[in-house]
């Protein structure tokens, strides 16, 4: 099965601490490397945790609060200094391109690689290749903010080995059978697809929701994902502050996970005021048992549906 995992580079909220860096994650799917948010110091965290920049091709910025993108210009500058030539795609709210280009101009940095910006405007598929796709959807925060879902595409059916050995179908026939086609025997009888193939594993998916107030409108976009990262900036005692600041408590993150029927919940974006975040885990687990606290430097495999 293709590797599908997330490395947490930063899981703190706006104010950094000795233990917490601002938001950033590296998603790996096979050889693909996607960066999700890029808070200050992200490139240092990538070095620290051996998160290679080499295959990094796409960066997704959820919103323009500084703790989610202040590391972007530094990372782009470093890629330039290392002589990068392959294109880099950056997705984010509209003013992001003007902000980054202005900084490049001011330092007379003339990039040798194509830097392509993609404005997030609507709920949409924003990246797609033959096996993987990424879509965005709106979160409920003080400024325009986007969540992302990363998912495998439906896989082809697998041919049964005994069928292939016995009937040696041609390449074109095998292709059609993998798509669901039947197989005609020389005597005119038909072998139905279910007899000659095995069902593929179910597609896996990962959703990223930071930053956002508790909002049920998010649920349809993340329904049944295998792994959900959801912000949990505050605890129960600060529910009013959370609402005022358009953030969530750990319990609210768990409510969203429960309503969406996700496989596993990973909490993050912790406020600097908590020296110990374990009470957040307790609160969340009262609502949604399969919850973990994210930890910087840790890599989490996106589980399958079994
Ligand atoms: Zn924010």
Report, as a whole number of angstroms, the end-to-end distance.
13 Å
Number of strands: 18
If you consult CATH, what is the topology of the largest domain?
Metallo-beta-lactamase, Chain A
Structural class: alpha/beta
**Order of SSEs:** EEEHEHEHEEEEEHHEEHEEHEHHEHEE
Largest sheet, strands/sense/barrel: 7 strands, mixed
Q: What is the tally of helical segments?
A: 10
Bound molecules: zinc ion
Unreliable stretches: none
CATH superfamily of the largest domain: Ribonuclease Z/Hydroxyacylglutathione hydrolase-like
Strand order of the largest sheet: 6-5-4-3-2-1-18
The fraction of residues assigned to DSSP E strands is 25-35%
The overall number of domains is 2
Provide the helix percentage. 25-40%
Q: Mean pLDDT across all residues, rounded?
A: 94
The CATH architecture name of the largest domain reads 4-Layer Sandwich
CATH class of the largest domain: Alpha Beta
Shape: globular
* Quaternary assembly: single chain
> What integer value in Å does the Rg equal?
22 Å
């Amino acid at each position: 099965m293709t590797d599908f995992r997330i490395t947490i580079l930063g899981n703190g909220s706006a104010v950094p601490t000795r233990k917490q860096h601002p938001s950033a994650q590296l998603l790996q799917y096979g050889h693909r490397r996607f960066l999700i948010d890029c808070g200050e110091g992200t490139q240092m965290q990538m070095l620290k945790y051996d998160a290679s920049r080499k295959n990094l091709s796409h960066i997704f910025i959820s919103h323009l609060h500084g703790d989610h993108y202040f590391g972007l210009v530094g990372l782009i500058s470093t890629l330039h200094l290392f002589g990068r030539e392959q294109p880099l795609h950056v997705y984010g709210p509209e003013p992001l391109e003007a902000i980054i280009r202005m900084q490049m101009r001011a330092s007379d940095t003339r990039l040798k690689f194509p830097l392509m910006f993609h404005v997030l405007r609507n709920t949409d598929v924003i990246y797609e290749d033959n096996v993987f796709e990424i879509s965005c959807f709106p979160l409920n925060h003080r400024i325009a903010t986007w969540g992302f879902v990363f998912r495998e595409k439906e896989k082809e059916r697998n041919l049964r080995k005994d069928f292939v050995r016995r009937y040696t179908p041609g390449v074109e026939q095998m292709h059609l059978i993998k798509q669901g086609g039947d197989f005609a025997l020389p005597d005119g009888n038909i072998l139905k697809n279910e007899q000659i193939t095995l069902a593929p594993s179910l597609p896996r998916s990962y959703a990223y929701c930071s930053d956002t107030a508790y909002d049920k409108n998010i649920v349809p976009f993340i329904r049944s994902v295998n792994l959900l990262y959801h912000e949990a900036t505050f605890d129960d005692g600060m529910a009013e502050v959370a609402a005022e600041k358009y953030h969530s408590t750990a319990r609210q993150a768990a409510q969203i996970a429960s309503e969406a029927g996700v496989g596993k919940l990973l909490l993050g974006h912790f406020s600097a005021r908590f020296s110990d975040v374990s009470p957040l885990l307790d609160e969340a687990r009262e609502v949604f048992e399969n919850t973990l606290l994210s930890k910087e430097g840790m890599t989490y495999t996106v589980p399958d549906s079994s």
